[in-house]
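Sample log: DUF6383 domain-containing protein.
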Amino acid sequence: MNKRFSTLVAAFAAFATVSYAQIGDKYVHLKNSSSYLTWDKASLADSVALGSQGSTKADMDSALWKANLIRVNMPGNDSIYTLTNKATQKQLSFSAKLNGADKFGTAIAAGISEFKIKHGTGGYSIIGTTTDGKLVEMTTTSGLLMVDGKTDKSGTAGTAAVFTVEAAKADYDVTKADLAPVLPSFKFDFAGRDGGLFTANELIPVPVGNKFRFQVVGQENSTKGTKAPQYITIDTVMVGTAASVKAASFQLDTTITAASSAYKGALNEGLQTFTLKMDLGNDSIVMTTDSIVRFNTAGEFEVADHGAGTGFTYLVGYKSFDGGAKLVVDSIQINAPLITISKGTPVKLAGGTGVYSLQLKAKGGNTKADYNDKYLTGTAGVYAEAASAYVPSTQFYVVENEDGTYSAQARDIASATVPSGVAAVGGESLAIVDPEKPFTDKPLYAVDAAKSIYTTVGGDTLVFTKLDVDMANKYIGYKYYTKEEMGYGAVKFNLASKAADDIYLTLVQDSVIAGAKGIDNAIELRLMEGADLGTTGDTVYYGARALGDTLVRVAYAMEKAYNAEGQFAYENTVVKLSDPSNGGLAAAKKRFFFVENPAGESYKVIAADEAAVTSTGTAVNLVNANMVTMNISNLTVTYAAPTASVETYFNIEGAEAPVYAKIGSGHYNVINGNEMLTASAGIAKLLRVGDELKAAAADSDFSLFVDSAYVNRGDDNTEYGYYIYKGAEVKNDTIVGNVLAAKGDFVADKAEGDSAIFRSVTVVADTIAYAGDLDKDGKQKTYTVRNGNNTSLVGFKVVDGEGYEIVALNTNKSLAVVNGTVIFADNVAPQIFTLDAAEAPTANEGVEVSEVTVIAGEGQVTIAGAAGKKVVVSNILGQTVANTVITSDNAVIAAPQGVVVVAVEGEEAVKAIVK
């Protein structure tokens, strides 16, 4: 019973020699001289080479092959094999295509995968068979491997490779990484036989030097209230029919730290440690221990002294008792089983991949105990009192990996130094923050799965709570406006406070911002992205980017709506409108993030430079940052740190109800009550259809063409400005016609007083030129859309439930009527207009008819596209003014002021109003 093996050699004696007949039994090394056939994992290509055997299991596995007999070829009775690499589980396979000069490639590729293994006096020759019947022998040259028996790729003659078979290492010391490389647990398989605690459970390996203890998953601690760890321990059991036979078997027990009478005054540590040796030929394991419980002559059991007789071990295997086999520990009459390992079952996070809050559990002397029950944030060492679905820095994106491990990263940073040297391009800053990653590719251990409490090896104990977060919302935690919303809307800031109701930001003396009661006092602010100011960093990409989770926050500049009197900014602690025409303040002090309240729906206003990155890497702190604050007592507004931990939040109103409407290009009747806007002798008039109209006028005279004032607007345009034309010839980006305008001080103006007029213009892309508006050298002046001399740019300001005010955006004057005269004014109540779709006029000035165009001017008409055709021009009384054949593509014919009828040969007659 107490006979010991002198060494482990006897246990592995059967594996010491591999004969020719055994070549297919296990994985073996194929050795040529001092080199081994191995998978070349260092190569970019999937290939083989001759190299070293290696010292690690991974390297040795790469140099192990199994020959699998697939058939016997006739005639000759040649045995045909495939060779499978242990590490890759890929078959040795060479390209069947000759690579010049009857040579074959060496990369593993589809082609030759069947080999004859020929046994000679010096070893084995591996001969490949090709599809065309040729034989290809593996050869070597200067340590390189090829498949051709003639020459290598450089033309050097090769030498046929003769391989000897060398057994795989049979006493490899198993490591923890071999048992549980990724997951925390593994399983033993005793060739399908019952191994009691070892096979009925998933085990956690606990290294003790080069040996192991084993815990059972779910029973890691004692159930007796001590909470001491317990391990599989060698003990005695009664076996057999009469239960009279005593044998050393296994049970769970804690470590005895003081001498115990139960073990004859010894400890039981040695009964908990096992040595594992692996035969790499088939990854089978021999399990031994150097301690045992044995019985003396009096029938008393005692712990054999594992310290005596170094190198003597006991073998774990099966013995028969009353016809049944039981796993025990002994040194004689033992059947060593074929023990293999398999992957354990990973601990699953109930909610799977998603966004979680991570609450710290750190009681009982833990160094982080002061933060117990608080929440991890995106900054190491910074904890939050609560987590929120609206605060990304308290959210962690947790990903379940394919191998059962988990990775986690916060979605935003709370307060930390960010990496320096981050480039910002085109107004965008990429990944300027690197939120905390509490664990990466780690298995989870269940502390209390029912309560979602888990930990990782060496990690914190955390409560995982899945948050109801819309992963499609990339702007979570920050207010975001689309280009459309910025384009035609303005916003107002209403104080979100239970202590003060109906308080808004307003403009007071000296352009200072303060609070005021009532929405009528609210300042309306138009939004712009910071890039519109020529700055960078207004769009920040962040999030748990290492895990593929990207979030976006956008900083906005704000100016007084459609007036550009000033831009919302701060100077020291004063919040004000900064005059951009006078240089204003630094761009960063005029750009703001709207950071959402943890409870949602309201926002604090934080300047972009509070979250900026300098060349040295500044602190990013959106939690305790300075912000726009309001004193409820006196309604003063400052830019400063929140007072007494009270943060100022605002409800941001107005963007959903547009200030200026977006109008599609087309023909409209511009209606004011029962009257419509039109041109009469170049003057803007409101005339009732059929009332006081000249006989030649028709409904088509009230069809006005409304078109965007912008051509190169793209997605970045933030205004909806328009021109209203009476007659327009549109060709690509050029429009020629008469456009509604404020009178101005031009010589060509025929209007009296302050009348609004329709001016003859040429609009090319984003510039406008008024006829007769010349510089001192007689050259035509042109203006951009927002130039102050452009008096035609209008917006349709929404009047809820009624229609629109037509506002000249460059002067902020509205279309009004005084004593029957239509004017643009800022001191008269504006008129309300509605727009009804109308048909394009078929007989109007400046309308393209077929390929012939008639353009009315001052004292003349211009006829384009009618060369060689007869033209008759008549006045409103039918009297012929001109009757001629046009000789050019742009003929100018003198005509009297008023309505004339132009009849071009082969075309319908059109009317034109000559000024």
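Observation: DSSP finds five helices and 76 strands in the chain.
Observation: The mean pLDDT is 77.
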